[in-house]
Amino acid sequence: MPFVDRVDAGRRLAAHLQSLRGDVVVLGLPRGGVPVAAEVARSLEAPLDVILVRKLGVPRQPELAMGAIGEGGVQIANDDVIRAAGVTNSQWAAVANREQAELARRAQRFRGNRPRVDLAGRVAVLVDDGIATGASAMAACRVARKLGAARVVLAVPVASQGAVEAIRSAADEIVCLETPVAFRAVGEWYDDFSQTTDEEVVRILEQSSGRPAPGATTTTEVEVTAGSLRLAGRLTLPDQARVVVVFAHGSGSSRHSPRNQLVADVLNRAGLGTLLFDLLTPGEERDRTNVFDIELLGHRLVEVTHWLEANPATRQLDVAYFGASTGAGAALWAAAAPDLDITAVVSRGGRPDLAGSRLAYVRAPTLLIVGSRDEQVLALNRAAASQLRCEHRVAVVPGATHLFEEPGTLQAAAALARDWFASHLAAAPAAKSTRSARTDSWSGSAPR
Predict the structure, then answer these.
(1) pLDDT tens-place string over residues 93-113
(2) Which of 35, 141, 277, 335 could form a disulfide with 170 if both were Cys (CB 3.0 to 4.6 A apart)?
(3) Measured between alpha carbons, how far is 85 from 90 in angstroms, rounded to an integer?
(4) Domain holding 302: CATH number?
């Protein structure tokens, strides 16, 4: 059964690990294993850390593992591969030295000045997003053992049967949800297997460690009221926040989207509040026509905005929108509502064209962020921009495709969004209670 993404895989894996509650440490294998491990640690109420290992690839065939190294000086050699590939001692040493330097870099990057979580006498639960050959997982098990773990449990959503058998001697227990007979690649078992970045790993570890971003920040799981519905959401409010940015995700995504979470974290660190919520109920999502019903989604955003205006924690804050993919169309549709006063709108890889004739009624300053390699969507954004009468700009991120998966491109988009919101917030009055009514005139009612 395929997993939606790493968050979904982590939650489903955690359900099979509840018996391990107690003196447990959850260790994610970077990078892809960390989002999975974060969900396991949250469910088990256990500390989260990384366990660092590096595959040693055969020279000129780096995808073929001849061994692995890990923290604490652990080395594993696959003698059969070494003999078959004719790898010499000097070649082995050269690869090992190079990967040892990367191991040290990752330790500094991911932990910073934080000490490694002590494993002595504790149960170490090692988590990855999947296992193909098992070399790295075996090294990780040995690292945990060397660092004093009393018991080592390897937990993964999916793995090849051969890998599971190979690792049995290194782990005290293996929990694996799927071991397909015809295993080809881990990514085939995920709907969304987009790359996990160093920045995402750092963010997850910092959040788990309880170290707040500069200034105190409060995150609350909420039920957002939209008409008669209650929708799950996550509201994050830094101290002194003057705005809450409402996220409208794209088709097939949710409030757990790693990309939206990364952008939200950048905004939170800049002192901006965020609300990530599910636009549709689980039952509504099963009908795919709802995912592309821009009017339905737009009305949902309008209702959620009214909920924020009535909520004691947010009613004095301005409201802005951040939309991705089809969610951008819904955000602009909602921003055109005559009874809303939206501070600013940002679209990332969005479909603003889906807002149709309502684009002409948007009053909020609007930034359209598109990747330079997302050529069709870039053309749609430029055409939509020509229909906007408000302040607007099209910002093109070099080298980015539709999902901004290329290194550094999502971070660039997040920085653009942060700066757009911050600059337009700075130009606005400081509090809703002192804001004068807008004088924008409407020629008739907004299109429905």
Answers:
(1) 899 888 888 888 888 888 877
(2) 141
(3) 14
(4) 3.40.50.1820
